[in-house]
Every structure is written in C-alpha cells, then in structure tokens.
Fold this sequence. Notes:
Elements: E1 5-8, H1 18-31, H2 38-41, H3 49-59, H4 66-84, H5 96-105, E2 110-113, H6 119-125, E3 134-136, H7 149-158, E4 165-169, H8 172-180, E5 184-188, E6 199-201, H9 209-217
Parallel strand pairs: 1-2, 1-4, 2-3, 4-5, 5-6
Helix pairs in contact: 1-4
The protein binds 6-O-phosphono-beta-D-glucopyranose and magnesium ion.
Amino acid sequence: MYEVGFIFDLDGVIVDTAKYHYLAWKKLANELGFEFTVDQNEMFKGVSRKRCLEILLDIGNINATQEQFDKWMVEKNLDYLDYINKMDESEILPDVQRILKYLKKQNIPIALGSASKNAKPILEKVKLLEYFDFIVDGNSVTKAKPDPEVFLIAAENMGLMPENCIVFEDAVAGIEAANNAKMISIGIGEEKILKEADFNFNDFTEIDLSFIKKLLNNK
Ligand code: BG6
Ligand code: MG
C-alpha cells in the first residue's frame, strides 16, 4: 500500500487558463487607459484575484476607491467566465489525463490545490472533476500562496503527512508554497523560472511512469 498523495495546481498545470486570465486583466487595464503585457502576467500566476488587481492598479498607477476596486474584481471575473464557459476537454494540457488515470488505477489519493475560486466549474467543464478526491481552492483558504495553507489542507484531507505529498505547480509562488509545506515540488514549465522546484519538467509529456513509480516507492 502506498502512503503518498498527489496535489495538482489547476491553472497552468491542468488547463492553460493563464491566457484567459491575461485577456481579462488586459481588457480591464486597457479600459483604465494603460497596457498590460504577457511578461507582466507572469507575476499573476498562482496569485489571488484580489492581489492581482492590486498589482494591476500599481502598474497603471491608479488609486481606486473600495467601491471601484470591488466593481473591477467582479468585471474581470465576468470576462474571465465568458472564456471559461466555452471550455471543453480539448483544453486539458497534454498528458494530464495519462498521469491522472495512472494514479487513479493505483488508488493514490489525488487533490486539487488551487488559488482559484473558479476551480470546480473549470474541472466540470473539462470533465476531470471525478478524478479528484479533494478540492482545495480559493474558497477554502485564508492565506494565498506562497503560504503553504492550501497544500497543508489538501494533505490533511488526504490523511497524509506533508512530506508524503507531491505537488505539481507552474507558478513560482506555488513552488514556494509546496517547499514551505515541506512537500516534494515538481515544476511544470520553464526550469529557469521554477528553479526552486525539486524536479522540473516542461510539461506532462516529459514525465514517464517510471518517474512516478520511483516517487511512490521511495516512500
Ligand atoms: C490561480 C491563477 O490559479 O488562480 C491566478 O494562477 C489567479 O492567475 C488565481 O489570479 C485566482 O483565480 P480566480 O479564478 O479565483 O480569479
Ligand atoms: Mg498555476
């Protein structure tokens, strides 16, 4: 019997929703009269919606009233949801299902550990919800990544010690959160950005089952 569990981040690990977050933030920035670049969007990965808006307003040098701030949070999310509502299975990132299927077959617990408050509807849209034994998302946490809270709740739900949990993450803040939780961190994306991860892969196509088996058996 294995005593390990896997925790998957959502945006940028399971689905490429970063591009939709970007388009929705860019629209708001443009409406407010400034530009928002793809490079600046890197800072938004793994970061809560509220914190993203704070950073965006800093970039645009805009002082908002509480009322404006709340209105823009809602506006951005409605634009983002327009993209999400059109999603289907074709937007699952390559080989994510192969790994999920393998873990399921081995009866390994699988949790989601995401900052997003839209996590559940997205998993439903792409028909992956059934793979997850536990969903820990932006609605379940009080502290954002790099705080380890989201991953520690996932470990607790799975009934596992943090050091027996393995996290897939595409964001610097997420790798930091996994490391802060004393979990095994696997960076999905550019190694030069995710250099603090214990292991790095560009995407799931590079992960073969012998690597997963090794993680399972080292425990
Ligand atoms: C993270 C994304 O997964 O979720 C961030 O990487 C995003 O870019 C955050 O801001 C919150 O998402 P949502 O869906 O609650 O606005
Ligand atoms: Mg992510």
